[in-house]
Amino acid sequence: MEGSEAGTGSGVIYKQEGDTVYIVTNHHVIEGADTVEIVLSDETQHEAEVVGSDLFSDLAVLKVSGLGIDQAMTIGSSENLKVGEPAIAIGSPLGMAFSGSVTQGVISGKQRTVPQDFNRDGRADWQAEVIQTDAAINPGNSGGALINIEGQLIGINSMKINEQDVEGIAFAIPVDSALPIMKKLEETGEVVRPYMGVEIYSLEEVPQAEWQSTLKLPGDVDGGVYVWSVERLSPADQAGLQELDVITELDGKPVMNMIELRQILYYEKEIGDDVEVTYYREGDQKKATIKLGVQ
């Protein structure tokens, strides 16, 4: 992608409407770019418009008009993938010099979870649910297609394990998970998620001695999230939550850490829902109802 070429990646033309095509790639490929340029297989270059992008799913949607392209990638399904079936990765590993590269492997695993640290503070902010493959995926492949033997799109290549002594472990975003996000990005340019208005950290990050001495937690509490701060006039503030409260359940579902709380909010709840929060304050268990807002 352009500037003084800040970075390169791959993308998939997944939809065509009139003379406009829509392209899906990774959020991290276009993040921070002033302009985005695509290069087609015939090496022609075209400036693309960023329709929308989403950090948590690592997806971005672009659109370009006037290319004369009259077809898009056939969309498959990731739901019924079988471990061991062939998988083919397409993209531009290491930049444009190797554009259109194709590598073949197999589906190594389904529904893998990989921790994501967005702000690089050493703490996982999210768990990405991904397809594992041993098809070679390298820098520049990000955003490219993972397809099945029928040539159907089953995933968006996203990342690999880049450590010494680790070989053949790469990941793709399942297409069934990607499609609803892509639709929202097309429609509104963003993915709006429910919002409580608290800065939280996993209880496991607090030294065990502080659980009783500072947070006054009963001995049978073995997980949760503690509230570091509450945004003024936010849903959590209006419900009465305070600093150092420890949340252990949402609507009766145990919350062991920050990722579990976000998964419940983002996957199971909608903006405007009422959520019963179970929490501890000064050793006493309390409940509050929060009406989820939008940030």
Describe this structure in words.
It contains five helices and 19 strands. It is mainly β and 295 residues long. The protein folds into three domains: 54 residues, Thrombin, subunit H, CATH 2.40.10.10; 100 residues, Trypsin-like serine proteases (Thrombin, subunit H, Beta Barrel), CATH 2.40.10.10; 101 residues, PDZ domain (Pdz3 Domain). A six-stranded antiparallel beta barrel has the order 6-7-8-11-10-9. Strands 13, 14, 15, 16, 17 and 18 form a six-stranded antiparallel sheet that branches. Strands 1-2-5-4-3 form a five-stranded antiparallel sheet. The mean pLDDT is 89.
CATH class of the largest domain equals: Mainly Beta
Which percent range fits the helix content?
Answer: 10-25%
Task: Estimate the strand proportion.
Answer: 35-45%
* Biggest sheet descriptor: 6 strands, antiparallel, barrel
CATH architectural name of the largest domain: Roll
The tally of structural domains comes to: 3
Pick out its properties.
295 residues; mainly beta; Thrombin, subunit H; Pdz3 Domain; 3 domains; 6-stranded antiparallel barrel; 6-stranded antiparallel beta sheet; 5 helices; elongated
